[in-house]
């Protein structure tokens, strides 16, 4: 029953996460770093953001296998159905938000900040569920485990690399910077902060949902935005950004 609750919570978090990505994207000021490459590709090829998210996620899973080799655990295969669900959730929420098309820069910024808030909440729910990591974070963890790097620093380098590669692809395919803008930087800075803040402010929810685990740590392994761990409402010192 406890595991079922966690998976249901994770699916809810995954949907909220997708909703946040779509709202940030709809603001037309760029998208989150991890979605920047799929977004740029979707602007230049006849496939959706969700389609490219699935393909990109599977690529990250393959890279994890190459990096970890025999240390790649069978349970990590769960990333594949999760990635497929996440891709479809993104397309669904993009369709749901078809009416959002801000023209004024101030309205675009409001939509961006609202998207960051929603995305941060989705990340918080995924961390709270603590069942599986998305390919982006799992890829970073694979690097950390293999080469003993700091999770937070590695995550920052990874996110920065995604944005840079997306920018290069944009120039290659369209001859201009399209899909990577100030919103990408803002999302990178805000989403992790929001998720960590919610992790501290809403600590009581864990004891309410999982009363049998009272007194244990918030998260059993390095997860998502924090790059560290929440223990009894406190974030590990080695917290990085999303």
Describe this structure as you would to a colleague:
The chain has a two-stranded antiparallel ribbon. It is mostly helical. It has nine helices and two strands, in the order H-H-H-H-H-H-H-H-H-E-E.
Shape: globular
Oligomeric state of the chains in view:
single chain
Q: What fraction strand?
A: under 5%
Radius of gyration: 17 Å
Structural class: mainly alpha
Helices, by number, come to 9
Number of DSSP-assigned strands: 2
Summed over residues and divided by their number, the pLDDT gives a mean of 87
Report the span from N to C terminus: 31 Å
Instruction: Tell me the helix content.
Output: 55-70%
Order of helices and strands: HHHHHHHHHEE
- Spatial sequence of strands, sheet with the most strands: 1-2
Give the low-confidence spans.
216-242
Topology readout:
Elements: H1 2-26, H2 33-44, H3 49-68, H4 79-96, H5 105-129, H6 135-147, H7 151-174, H8 182-201, H9 203-209, E1 230-231, E2 234-235
Antiparallel strand pairs: 1-2
Give the gist of this structure.
By secondary structure, the chain is mainly α. Helices cover about 70% and strands about 0% of the residues.
């Amino acid at each position: 029953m406890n595991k079922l609750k966690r998976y249901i919570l994770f699916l809810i978090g995954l949907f909220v996460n997708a909703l946040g990505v779509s709202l940030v994207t709809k603001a037309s000021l760029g998208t989150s770093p991890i979605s920047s490459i799929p977004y740029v590709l979707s602007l230049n090829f006849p496939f959706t953001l969700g389609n490219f998210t699935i393909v990109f996620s599977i690529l990250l899973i393959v890279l994890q296998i190459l990096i970890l080799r025999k240390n790649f655990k069978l349970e990590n295969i769960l990333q594949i159905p999760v990635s497929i669900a996440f891709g479809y959730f993104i397309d669904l929420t993009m369709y749901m938000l078809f009416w959002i098309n801000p023209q004024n820069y101030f309205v675009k910024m409001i939509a961006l900040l609202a998207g960051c808030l929603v995305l941060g909440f989705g990340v918080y729910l995924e961390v709270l569920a603590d069942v599986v990591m998305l390919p982006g974070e799992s890829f970073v963890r694979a690097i950390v485990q293999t080469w003993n790097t700091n999770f937070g620093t590695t995550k920052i380098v990874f996110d920065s690399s995604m944005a840079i590669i997306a920018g290069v692809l944009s120039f290659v395919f369209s001859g201009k910077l399209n899909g990577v803008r100030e919103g990408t930087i803002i999302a990178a800075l805000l989403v992790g902060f929001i998720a960590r803040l919610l992790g501290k402010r809403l600590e009581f929810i864990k004891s309410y949902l999982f009363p049998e685990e009272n007194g244990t740590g918030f998260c059993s392994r390095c997860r998502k935005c924090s790059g560290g761990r929440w223990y009894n409402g406190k974030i590990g010192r080695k917290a990085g950004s999303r």
